[in-house]
Amino acid sequence: MGAGVLTRPYERRDGALWCEGVPLEAIAAAAGTPAYVYSANALRERFRALDAALAGVPHRIHYSMKANSSLGLLRVLRAEGCRADVVSGGELMRARRAGFAPDHIIFGGVGKRRDEIRAGLEAGVLLLNVESGAELDLVEAEAKAMGVVARIAFRVNPEVHVANAHEFIATGSRGHKFGIPWGDVPSVAARALASKHIEVAGLDMHVGSQLLSLAPYRDGVERLAELARGLQAQGAPLRFFDAGGGLPARYDAEEAPDLALFAEIIVPVVQQLGLELIVEPGRFVVAESGALLTRVLYRKPSGGTDFVITDAGMSELLRPSHYDAYHAIEAVRPRGGMRTVDVVGPICETGDFIARDRLMDDTVPGDLLAVHTTGAYGYVMALTYNSRPRAPEVLVDGTRWAVIARRETLDDLVRLEAETLDWKEST
Ligand SMILES: *Cc1c(COP(=O)(O)O)cnc(C)c1O
To answer: For a pocket test of ligand 1, which of 47, 66, 73, 288 has the largest count of ligand atoms closer than 8 A to its C-beta?
Structure first.
């Protein structure tokens, strides 16, 4: 299950780039630009590869919806047998609309509000992932008020070291806001075990994102297993061992994750504990399925930099300016020649760029570009800054394609705003 198995859905045919059996030029002509494109078969392939790799132990794959929560994409994954991981009441609503059964949903998140906790309990989600002692109190109070037993997992901060991660995507090291601090777990667990409104059903960790080395998993799994054994000895009715997300996608020259090695690290430990394995991949499932289509508007040499100004920018793809992330860019129909340029958007911010100092296909205004590996953390982070409507999303499946989210209209941009003001008098 090494690097060769996961195919890339974007291929060149007769000089132009296609997604599966559809030319990107045809999508751009019909849907306009910018536009997000996703390959349905890339999603299926990644889900199936992970599912097969974990076959040695009872397991559940809960796709982390925050990576891309479009209903059209969720339905493809649900049809494969994939389940959902949500981090807000909004994502819970989306998961339900996409048809996920409540007990196929895990509800995590570091800052759940009371109404969100209640929505999770009312829906009957498989697990509420509790991230602090204070949240445990709130969950217990809500469960008591509703007369139910809340099935929870503790999201634990395993406090492992994650090398080479951007500081904004490491989550499971000492001093991060996520999870219950390692040293606090026994006391929080003891309170939970004493409550008749709480069922301690699982342990959860999420060490970080885009983990190019599996070492943090190995460390985290060992620590979580130690905790599981301790809780089992205290009589906790544990069922689930949740190893989180973090499997990487290929943005540049990275290798596909070694799923066999991933399984080798986790499966024996979970088997030995007699638990069911949960994983929460986000990026791994969706990132490589996606490309952002954008057109070159202008070329502008300025002060020694050669700018390519495109109709997509940080509003469509925040990762370059937020995480200094790399995304490969190529011309959909290269005209020959390469040039070192900055690819920037139309937003009035110097930080609005998709690539800097990048040697890439030479282009002229009107050319179509594909920005790769944009299926994850692309559309979900889209902004309407500068009052630019959000771009549409297109799903390709074989030789067919469909718009799964239409382009926002100018009217959409002001639909939340009051035309006449309903003034309240301060008393
Ligand atoms: C973001 C997140 C994931 C998914 O992370 P990826 O790196 O996209 O796989 C999984 N679990 C939790 C709790 C998360 O916050």
So the answer is: 66
